[in-house]
Amino acid sequence: MTTPLFRLSSRLTDARDIASKARAADVSGNPHEALVLYERAIAMIEAGPYDALLADLFRWKGTTHRDRGETYLAQQHYERSLEIAIACDATLSRAHALNCLGIIAQRRGDLERAAGFYSEAAIYATRAGEQQLSGMIGQNRGVLANIQGDHHVALARYTESLVSFEAANNDEATSWVLNNIGMLHSAENRVDDADKAFARGLALADCRGDKRMQGLIELNIAHHRLGLGDVASADQRIARVLTLAAERGDSLQSAEAFKLRAQIEQQQGLLDAADATLRRARDLAEKADDALLVAEVLRVIADVADARGERDRARSVLRQSRESFRGLGARRDMDHASACLSLLN
User: Where are the alpha helices (DSSP H) in the chain?
Assistant: First the structure.
């Protein structure tokens, strides 16, 4: 039996309204409510016929899972989104799903596969004439370049994306790329540039009430301030990140924050506390399937083990970290780990 067009149109309208509420709940720090609402919207239209909205609903729900560190669930939803987008010939939804699958591959450390997804996503984004999505894909390619140590390429991609997002008055995406630019400037010791980028990004996130982005930028500011020796400021920001992450059930941000807190504890000579905090960080990072974060945590574990006089353990863990960086193609991190190993031998 065919579905009357007026009834289908009504269901699609209702599903869009629910999806809008779900996205607002997610931004304001209520991911559980968002997931429930997305599921309700999906149930309204999943019986068919397939529509681009259904592909988008699965993708949005997948992103909520992804932001909570639930990587396997995110991948399932993105794959379903791609299937539906192909089935109903929704070019833009297809591009979005491919981009999101690239993010999952990148998180798991398969950078070659991630690059492939991003390249395919860029093709469909161009076909759809969607400039903002092209900017998002460019930003993600910039992240890959940054991981691989190509900072000039990364900055060029970030800057190009920033121009695109600002021209479209997309404050959400602008805050994303400003955060990445701040991290890049921090890594290059361009302190003033990093401060300005982080401040602009955080102001946009604050205005939007975007708790996930607030936590992410605060986390990177904490890392930046810690690198400058401003331990008090870093610790305050870490505390805020942990509060925001706990409210959202975000295991990834919690893992990042615990990694930084352990570094502070190490500086303060609290080596047993640092070791325990790093175990929590590693468990959460592994649960979230974030290969780069696991490698970074391992590197800090090795530092703490060395400080505790456990040189054999330090060497073993640092070798694991180095091999993880090697597999990721993170050349600078791999070289740094190799240099540290030579000092331990």
Answer: 5-27, 31-45, 52-67, 71-87, 91-107, 111-128, 131-147, 151-167, 171-187, 191-208, 211-227, 231-248, 251-267, 271-287, 291-307, 311-328, 331-344
Q: Which of 138, 78, 146, 79 is closest to 111 using CA atoms?
A: 146
8 A C-beta contact, residue 65 and residue 36: no
Dump pLDDT digits (tens) for 124-136.
999 999 888 999 9
Per-residue confidence (pLDDT) for residue 7, from 0 to 100? 57
The CA distance from 245 to 72, in Å, is 19
What are the backbone dihedrals phi and psi of residue 97, each rounded to the nearest 5 degrees, phi first? -65, -40
Rounded Cα–Cα distance for residues 257 and 296 (Å): 12
For the CA atoms of 266, 271, 276, 281, the dihedral, rounded to the nearest 10 degrees, stands at 20
Q: In the predicted model, what is the mean pLDDT of residues 95-122? A: 95
Query: Is the pLDDT assigned to residue 2 strictly greater than 90?
Result: no
Beta carbons of 241 and 257 less than 8 angstroms apart: yes
3-state secondary structure of 210: coil
Rg of the chain on CA atoms, in Å:
21
